[in-house]
Design brief:
Blueprint lengths: L5 H10 L9 E2 L15 E3 L2 E3 L6 H13 L20 H11 L17 E2 L5 E6 L2 E6 L2 E4 L10 E3 L9 E4 L4
Antiparallel strand pairs: 1-9, 2-3, 4-9, 5-6, 5-9, 6-7, 7-8
């Protein structure tokens, strides 16, 4: 067997999502949605509406999330093709961030451990754990799983446990 240098091995582990969470901000509270006029997105009929004074990137993120509603869950969806007929968790988050101008290309779930800045942002938060990623945009959760019934990308106002996740956010948001 050929030996692999330690820096290369560490890079491979990070790429596979095997990173230490010790330097990350761990989620301690459930992820909850509470409408607050002017500060959070409004969800009506499955469509999210951005607060009037939200930054342009947040408005673009909400519009992108709205385009994914009713798409099915598809393992690997959103990675080989940006415009796909279904999306997985990381394809969903990548699509929204890319359409918002906050990401180039797409990331698999484990790569979100290194996306943006650690900790909570004011407008967009990425919740990542080994094997899954979801996000909140203006306080509203966009997720392919968890409480809320249907699989596939959906805006979900139901509370989801955050245990085991770390939180990241795009710089400035």
């Amino acid at each position: 067997m050929k030996s692999v240098s330690l820096p290369l091995f560490a890079t491979l582990l990070i790429g596979l999502g095997a990173v230490s969470c010790s330097s990350q901000v761990k989620v301690k509270q459930p992820v909850s949605y509470q409408f607050d006029n002017g500060k959070t997105a409004l969800l009506k009929g499955g469509i999210a509406y951005a607060p009037r004074k939200a930054p342009a990137a947040v408005k673009r993120a909400i519009a992108a999330g709205n385009r994914l509603q009713n798409k099915p869950y598809k393992w690997g969806g959103g990675h080989a093709k940006f415009e796909d007929n279904g999306y997985d968790c990381s394809g969903t988050v990548s699509y929204v961030l890319r359409e918002s101008g906050l990401l180039r290309g797409s990331l698999v779930s484990g790569n979100f451990f290194d996306y943006g800045k650690k900790g909570y942002g004011d407008w967009i938060n990425i919740y990542v754990r080994k094997g899954h990623v979801f996000m909140t945009v203006a306080g509203l959760r966009l997720d392919t799983g968890g409480p809320g019934g249907e699989s596939g990308p959906r805006w979900k106002p139901q509370t989801r446990g955050g245990s085991g996740h770390v939180v990241r956010h795009p710089s400035g948001l």
